[in-house]
Amino acid sequence: MKSFKLYSLDVVDDGNSVEVPLVDGLILNNEDEKSTWLLEAYTDLSLYDYFKKISEEDRDIIIEAVITKKENAPAYFQTKICSLIKFEKHISVLFKGQLRRNKSDYSELLLDSLIEKGLEGSELLKEFKEKMQSKPKIKVKNP
Asked: How many beta carbons lie within 10 A of that of residue 81, not counting itself?
């Protein structure tokens, strides 16, 4: 098992991205035969109802996670909420799932979004290089 700091977390739901402001976060690679990952987000109490609804629906959600530091490309996980704990001012949300291999490469997602904006040639290359440095969030349709 390997553990990492969860730097940032977004929930990708029907093409929309919900940023989860982290107080703290942890991600664990179980290194088991099912390639299971656990992601814990310690976040603001205001998101409790949002996560409670998802948990009650028992549905899969896509999580966009940046691990260890801002400069790292985001990784996408197909998860379910397996625990939701309410504290006085915060909540702990535990997600369990697998790394999504298809469409999870940040550079591919970025290039696709820039082409959709109509960029091409040297303008496309310039914008791509700038965005690869700054790593902005990308709206994901279906990772």
From this structure: 20
